[in-house]
Amino acid sequence: MAHMVFCVRYKKEMEGLDEPPFDSEFGQKIYKNVSKAAWDEWLGRQKMLLNEYRLQPWLPQAQQFLVEQMEDFFFGSGSALPADFVPPAH
Fold first, then answer.
1. What's the CATH code, domain 4-75?
2. Nearest CA to 73 among 45, 37, 35, 49?
3. Could you give the CA distance from residue 59 to residue 82 in angstroms, rounded to a whole number?
4. CA–CA distance from 14 to each of 33, 38, 88, 90 (Å)?
5. Dmax of the chain from CA atoms?
6. What pTM was estimated for this model as a whole?
């Protein structure tokens, strides 16, 4: 049976992640409160942040920045887009 959560992003009961994304208290918080759909949305946002800010994800400063953005994305105001971000045209 699927792991179900009340998703903090979509404000409804949805299928949750198969396992915590991190081996930490924050990873457990995400596992208990974030749906697969919201996590997929975050992965897209994370990719955009990595590209727009030209982050090197192996650096501790970049990792801390991404964790702060993730916290805001799921549990805060939603994480602001970079000021000069232009979404790709499809």
1. 1.10.3880.10
2. 45
3. 20
4. 10, 10, 29, 28
5. 43
6. 0.86
